[in-house]
Amino acid sequence: MLQSRTDEQLVELAVSDDREAFDEIVRRWERKIFALCFGMLGREDDAGDACQEAFIAAYRNIKNFRGEAKVSSWLHRIAVNQCLTIKRRQKSRAEDILDEDEAAEDRTFVASPNYSPAKVIEKSERLTLVRQAVGGLPTELRQVIVMKEFEEMTFQEISETLELPLSTVKSRLYTALKQLKMRLERTPVEVV
Amino acid sequence: MKNNGKTNCPFEDEIVTYIYDEMVGSERMKFENHLSGCSVCTDDFAAISEARFSVFEWQKEEFGHLPTPDIVIPYESNRRVVEESSSVGFLAGLRGWLSPLPLAAAAGLILFLGMGFVMLRDVGTTDQPIATNMNVQQIEAPNTAPIKNVDPVKQHEVKQPEVAVTTPKTTSKDIQPVKAVARRQTPSLKQTMATNLKKPASTQVPSTVPILSNYEAEDDNSLRLADLFADIDG
Questions:
Q1: N or C: which terminus of chain B has fewer CB atoms within 10 Å of its end residue's CB?
Q2: CA-CA distance, A123 to A62, in Å (whole number)?
Q3: ipTM score here?
């Protein structure tokens, strides 16, 4: 059973051309890498492309993984570099339709879109957990999350509204997201 | 959790600034260069990004599709409520009736003060017109112009002979009545002048001129003033 293997064991299997092992790595990390790319690029479609390219780059370079760092850190670094490459590419020229088509052709490692019943259930459970986790945050932390994510206020606007220094607002949001991450990890969603 | 899960990297506070795209160009470049080489920041960035994406997804799935409600403030029904409440009791009715009174009182006071100001100003400066945009010459012209220019007595003395001579040449509308009068007088003057010209020299005594010696003594029976006084005295 691949699901019970650690990341390092899966990488070892993938190095020996076990595609199912690499698929398991993708399934396990796709959401986190996508979230990272979304944090880097700010757009879902760009994040999807970056995530795709990051996993392709990981598969091509999996033999170079030496086990000095965690698999997660390795994947994070690959994703960050892919996002930076995409950003530079976007700066230098307008987005090319051909690139999108090529990327779509290679979209074989990533699991199918979130329309399968299992994915829908998983998503629903995750949203319930997020709601509970946000609701469990201290008021001052929950406040900045709501103002930033729901009301789309800038840090300066939040600072003026709450009459707090700008650095305090940033620090509170950082802490809020960190605590939220920890709360979500404490009750992980069972992968179907 | 120590120090709220913070690392010691100086860039960690900038992670949220970068994620929410509020970093300026030069700082962004510096942060990206650091991020690609710092595994601590990369892992931290991934953790923050994942938490942020969870919130983003939650917001999008549960709230994003909800339409913004159309907020309609029922001003008219509020007015009706006030009207209805005014008919409930005497005090409420009185309050409703008096509510426009302060406005009316204020308007009346402003009007009264304005009129008083205008009147005081008028009394203080009687020679000046009240309205500033009124043409002074239009008011004063009919009264002052004839007095200043022409002496009425002289005007009467001079006028008739001038009119008699220059009547055909005058075109001003102001002297139309005078012109009409002059036309009426003109034939008689002309006739008299004509008759005077036709008359023989003054040295020749016409046969029609009465001479006292030609009259015979007759009884004068006409009423005289002396007779009347005599009757009264008598």
A1: C
A2: 30
A3: 0.76
Residue A86 burial by Cβ neighbours in a 10 Å radius (0-12, 13-18, 19+)? buried
Distance CA B202, CA B108 (A): 86
Closest C-alpha among B198, B188, B193, B159 to residue B175: B159
Mean pLDDT, chain A, as a whole number? Answer: 83
Chains A and B form CB pairs within 8 A to the count of 126
Q: How far apart are CA A55 and CA A79, in angstroms?
A: 8
Residues in chain B: 234
User: Which of A52-56, A183-187, B33-37, B213-217 comes out lowest in average pLDDT?
Assistant: B213-217
The answer to whether B17 contacts A150, with C-beta atoms less than 8 Å apart, is no
Rounded-to-integer distance, Cα A7 and Cα A27, Å: 11
Using one digit for the tens of pLDDT, what is the confidence trace for A43-94? 888 889 999 999 999 999 988 888 888 898 899 999 999 998 988 888 776 5
Q: Give how far B114 is from chain A: nearest CA, Å.
A: 47
Mark yes or no for CB contact B15/A174 under 8 Å. Answer: yes
Reduced to 3 states (helix: H, G, I; strand: E, B; else coil), residue A183 is: helix
pTM, two decimal places: 0.53
